[in-house]
Amino acid sequence: MKFGGFMYFQNRGVDTTRVYDEHLAEIELMEELGFDEVWLAEHHFTYYGMLPSPNLILANLAARTRRLRMGAMILTLPFYEPIRLAEELTMLDHLTHGRLNVGIGSGVAREFARRGLAVEDAKPRFFEAFDVLVKAFTEERLNHDGQFWHYHDAPLEPKPLQQPFPPFYVAASSAETVRWCAERGLPIAQMNSETADVRQAFAAYRAALGRGNGAPKLGTPSVRLFRPTYVAETTEQALAEAEQAYFRFFQLFSTDESPAYGTPTPENWRYHTGKALRRLGPHTFEEFDADNYVIVGDPERVAAKLQSLSDLELDAYVGNFAFGTLTHEQVSRSLRLFAQEVMPRLRAAPAAAPA
Asked: So what's the pLDDT on residue 352?
């Protein structure tokens, strides 16, 4: 099993320049500690995630790292002009010397209206943009006459380093998207879902593999689980620090800064979690912990929690190590404890260098 980190670049109560500098330093530390991959979140109009253009950070990381594979989870395909995105991804593939992953999805509903886009078009735009990307990477001259985009005789120059294209990974939450990915052999990732729903989605994905009805095979099937993760010397310390920080995460997620819901009581947890993501519904931190929706504790407890998810047969576990109000020092300490005392229990060998 591979291990990765997921970074929102959230406002942690310091100035914006420092937010970027500290998160970049934390990613460099991941490389030093032997993590296999890092993923960035794309969000707009919010301090919940301060990466409206994650590809800029990936270009920066290309010069700071030598081994980590990297990508966004996700690039919001409906927001991009796809041939332009294909050109950017080609550049990044060369700048990273073939270490680029391409995470894709249809995006967050509330960000569409602010862009003047109809949320009903999210899935149609996603599927069409993906088709354009594949055509751009695999055909000598791109010709496409679709619902949203039209191209004639457009070559993609230069070509990406990874052939025929950098690997795609899909944030697949709906049954429709899970099935669509399985039919094409595309890897999937699950994040904001309860563990029982993740288990069901992965089972459906594996059952649908190879039933493509003629759909092209576009990747190597795999499953990834993303979870908020925090490690401290004691479980008591880890739970206390993580709950305070993760409550702030959900305040930003719900976009409600009202003082009436400003403290991490069970009622306020249920308010923010229910408002943030309706398909998740109201939860308390204790319920998240019991469900392994969060992976928090001392190294022994965190390792045991991950071992209890072995039935998911994960190809990679990706921890969101930097969330809410966690400081750079807390995140760095958590990363070191995870890499030095948790990862060795779950895999026999360190991360392999890329070819």
From this structure: 38
